[in-house]
Amino acid sequence: MDTYKVIEIKESVFENNDHQANLLRDELKEQKTFLLNLMSSPGSGKTTTLVQTINALKHEFSIGVMEADIDSDVDAKIISETGAKVIQVHTGGMCHLDADMTRQGLKGLGIQGIDLVFLENVGNLVCPAEFDTGASKNAMILSVPEGDDKPLKYPLMFSIVDVLLINKIDVMDFFDFDINLLKNKLVKINPEIQVIPICAKTGEGIEGWLDWIRDEIKQWNT
Length: 222
Known about the structure:
α8 (179-189) links the parallel β6 (163-167) and β7. The radius of gyration is 18 Å and the shape is globular. The protein has helices at residues 9-30, 46-57, 74-80, 99-109, 127-130, 150-153, 155-160, 179-189, 206-220, and strands at residues 34-40, 63-69, 85-90, 116-120, 137-143, 163-167, 194-197. The chain is α/β, with parallel strands linked by helices. It has a 7-stranded parallel β-sheet, sandwiched between helices. Helix content is 41%, strand content 18%. The N and C termini lie far apart (57 Å).
């Protein structure tokens, strides 16, 4: 007879997090606050995309932003210049946010009267995909220089997102990036995903992204 027991910690952690995420999602829907979890690799253009997005939507919605990083407040300072309500969330060395950390961030931000909250997750294509934050929807940015093979390397990330922004399309001609090949790979992983090519620097394609957000907020509030 064994004198010890085995505890499946990872499964237990995920199960509890999923429960907390569902509770948070229900609370946000009740108060009509749309939380968008934005994920990507470092350097893909998350902050630049957010600045473009906030400036375009701030006259339509009251906007809050949670900037998640292992350390520093560089991105929060940039976002604050848009006039959006912003809070910096330090993860204490962790490479992701879970539902409880998201709840703490929302409490610190203060979302009373806020229509739309962006969570700029930690730059990583692995850990953030494993933890449900309680967000209304999940979005991801893939930049052209990263290559069109990323769905094969990080399938979980691409399987959980509702929309994929392909950023930096202005340099498409300088990289071996095949957008049709990428879409063919995505169909096998996530046939429901929406793909929107953009250039956050110039604003090209951003209107399609804005329309997607508007439509999702409208559905969330009905």
